[in-house]
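Entry for nicotinamide-adenine-dinucleotide complex. Fields follow.
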Amino acid sequence: MGKYQTLVDEQRKFFLSNQTKSYNYRVEQLNKLEKAIKKFSSLIDDAMMKDLNKPKSEVEIFETGFALNYLSYVRENLKDWMTVNVMDSSNIFPNSTSTIYSDPYGVMLIIAPYNYPIMLTMLPLIDAIMTGNTAIVKPSELAPETSKVIDNLISETFEKKYIALVEGGQEETTELLSERLDYIFFTGSPRVAKIIMGEASKNLTPITLELGGKSPAIVIKDTNINEAAKKILWSKLINSGQTCVATDYILVDTEIKKELIKELEKEIINFYGKDPITSTDYCKTVNKKSFDRLKDLLDKSNGTVIFGGEFNEKELKISPTIVENVDWSDSLMSQELFGPIIPIIDFNGNMLDEQVIKPLNDNEKPLALYLYTNDEEVQKKVISQVSFGGGVINGAIAHALNLEMPFAGVGNSGLGQYHGKFSFDEFTHKKSVLNLPSDTSFEPFYPPYK
Ligand code: NAD
């Protein structure tokens, strides 16, 4: 018997008792979770300072605040989303009704990464509750203090047969995946996602994969360069680059490269002062392994470091580092950076097809793409010719904050989508039921055929 079989069995039994399915139950549980997040918010702040040196305002905007805001949005819309859809089928059977039911799957496993440990456990948990599923939450072992707080928050608020938390890493996740689950929601790296998908395939368990990748910022010469520089830096440097939708690298028209670099340098100092490593607003890299990985990638790069390049091993902090003269085959382009290194590749503005669109399509599909231009022709071209998860024109990250839109990667950056109504549809099975009066005849279908 697997280590977590009893837990999964108990959750399935509770799910089959049908209690989780009513609108009132779902709202009551959302209210409980809301109270708990508020109650634990200062403990969350402290834990995240220890795990990632994450400043309180970043926790408020992207973690606790985002989760609470999401919860209110979901609660406000839930009744509407739960209304069953009655479809017309009078053309096939005049006295019939056709109904699409949104059926919860059952026991849902939520596996989260370390970088936004509250947002990326709470959003899918809110989704599990609002869709009438039960949930087992597995936070990341790489943010251990936050994982402990989430454990307390969940065990104090819910019974294990409804919502449970399992702390741990690869070993515990592997054990959980060996159980027969009804849905797996995974946020993390494409490397681990392949393992998750392999395990899910054994029981044909439906999955959502929210992954990462190399998200470019493309800067066209007509844009407002100072605005572009600030938004690129913000998206790159919050959480010290450890954001799935961070700008990974910059593609800039050669004609404005110097000016953009000047603005980037100026704005880094405006954001974090002359010595960013000492700034209390600047996060650290999660662990020595990731710190060494980034150092190694920079050491192997053929580009030129023109700003930053400091590595403080004691504090695991890397200063914002701009690297010029990078090409597509550089070490810095070999993997998602997930750190504060900013490679710059320049291109000839008359060769967008060859020097931007083609190499983007030759590489893995990014999670996000940020295009800086007011030129509508260029906007249309890039959007229609490059495949990517989602993006912003003249900005970064903000598409993920609009709860009316799905959040999703594509190919190597993800499978499926979530947020709001898209979560509601993702975590419920659409069960189509045709209802006929008992005396309806199927005569025309039967043999012998005429
Ligand atoms: P990760 O893939 O290393 O770990 C994610 C989860 O998988 C953790 O809970 C971990 O315990 C578990 N895990 C690790 N190895 C495993 C194994 N061999 N078998 C089973 N489970 C295993 O990711 P990470 O380093 O925590 O996070 C960074 C990655 O997540 C980046 O690629 C980033 O882009 C991505 N990410 C994506 C999103 C998104 O919404 N698309 C959000 C945040 C992070």
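NOTE: The radius of gyration is 24 Å.
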